Amino acid sequence: MNSDDDLAYRRSVRNMSFVLAAIVITVFAAIFVPPYVYPPHDVFQSSVSSDSPFGFALHLRINATSVPRAGSISLTGWANSTSSSIENVTAANAWGLPQGRLWGRICTTGWPIGLGVMKGHYTRDNYTLGTVIPVPQPLASCPVQLSAPRYFLFEAHSSKALVTVGGNTVVWRIQTDFSFRGFQSSAQQSGVYTAVIADEWGDVLTTNFLVT
């Protein structure tokens, strides 16, 4: 091999090394770099819903897709029967996110849905990579907690469900409202956030908003 061929060969090997290094760096960043560093440029939705295999649809609505750091975001989540007849849904304990970090309903054992906020851009495909921001629960003098319902008897096309607690049958409207603020703290700051709703049957639904 003459000197020109040798030089061309070395140049080719060097260029290929640069290409391979660039590929490795790109793959590494896609897997390990947090999504709030390079968030996808999506058009955020203020309202999302998804059918559960258990006979109801899960809904999540936020009051804005862009809020200032000094402001707050309001979330509303609910479950609504998709059946034209009464739907009997057996209770479960298969939360897709830590229930203790989700906002449910004060003094209500067995409340089946919870809301939360995560820093970063997450979807239903990668929400397990995120962490729900802990929110201090208000101090409440709750009565003696009754046992959790064993079933939810949903009315047709409704978020109302008959449940039995403490031997009494009552009607619960499976809806939760939650307002989150605190974006000015050093731990949160500006960027893309994810609003999330989860239920005890393992369903999880997300949407996103921007804090400026």
SSE inventory with pairings:
Layout: H1 3-32, E1 47-51, E2 56-62, E3 66-67, E4 72-81, E5 87-90, E6 113-119, E7 151-154, E8 160-165, E9 168-173, E10 175-181, E11 191-199, E12 204-211
Parallel strand pairs: 3-12
Antiparallel strand pairs: 1-2, 2-4, 4-10, 5-7, 6-11, 7-8, 8-9, 11-12
Notable characteristics:
212 residues; alpha+beta; four-stranded mixed sheet; 1 helix; 14% helix
Describe the structure.
The protein has one helix spanning 3-32; strands at 47-51, 56-62, 66-67, 72-81, 87-90, 113-119, 151-154, 160-165, 168-173, 175-181, 191-199, 204-211. A 4-stranded antiparallel β-sheet has the order 1-2-4-10, with no helix packed on it. A 4-stranded mixed β-sheet has the order 3-12-11-6, with no helix packed on it. The protein has a 4-stranded antiparallel β-sheet with strand order 5-7-8-9, with no helix packed on it. Helix content is 14%, strand content 35%. The chain is built from 1 helix and 12 strands.
